[in-house]
Design goal:
Length: 208
């Protein structure tokens, strides 16, 4: 049976349009860091390189190599960790040029360092992209988090974050870090902005 994250990991990827608590286990990712406006070509190219590696692993059996533990699955969605530079934090309004980000795509648990090395080999053969040198493979564990589904333009996210912050305060919780996570359930190139679906998430801890 094909593993589809939308069906089999609903609690992590398909939250409601109201804040909810979730415990996020350790996950493996291809990731690449950057700074500046996400509307730039540079950002699109970084996304492209993450997908080239993710599909290299997904399609390995078709290349005649089936990794140990491999199973059919849907490639995971693009995610982003977002923060601001010190300068950006001091401003009253958001300056997208001051954004710091790590964009990433989760990989199934069977993926090992050897499989990652092979994915890089495949991706380089297909298209020698200098950005491949910037991609890291690592694990992240969010642990206890508050998340909520945001529907609409990315620029309207602050309203959803306000609801999440209120929930966090009402439930004697606190945000661990000003950095937040976004999971993109829609392709912004194909879906009109009013219908974009994005999971917003804060890593939190309980107050004593």
């Amino acid at each position: 049976m094909k593993h589809e994250w939308r069906k089999h990991e609903k609690e992590l990827y398909i939250p409601k349009q109201k804040p909810e608590l979730v415990s996020v286990p350790e996950q493996k990712f291809f990731m690449i860091k950057g700074k500046g406006n996400p509307n730039s070509d540079d950002f699109s190219e970084k996304i492209e390189v993450l997908y080239s590696l993710s599909y290299a692993i997904r399609m390995m059996p078709k290349q005649g190599y089936t990794p140990e533990g491999y199973f059919e699955y849907t490639v995971y969605p693009l995610e982003g960790l977002w923060d601001l530079t010190e300068e950006g934090r001091r401003l009253d309004t958001l300056d997208k040029d001051e954004l710091l980000y790590t964009i990433m795509i989760r990989q199934p648990n069977f993926v090992t360092k050897d499989i990652v090395d092979k994915a890089f080999e495949i991706a380089r053969k297909k298209k020698s992209n200098p950005l491949l040198d910037e991609v890291l493979f690592d694990t992240i564990e969010d642990g206890l988090s508050v998340q909520m589904l945001h529907i609409g333009p990315y620029d309207d996210e602050p309203q959803t974050f306000e609801k999440m912050k209120q929930f966090i305060e009402d439930n004697h919780l606190e945000i661990k870090t000003l950095r937040h996570r976004e999971i993109y359930l829609s392709d912004a190139r194909k879906v009109e902005s009013a219908k974009l679906k994005t999971v917003l998430r804060y890593a939190i801890r309980k107050l004593d």
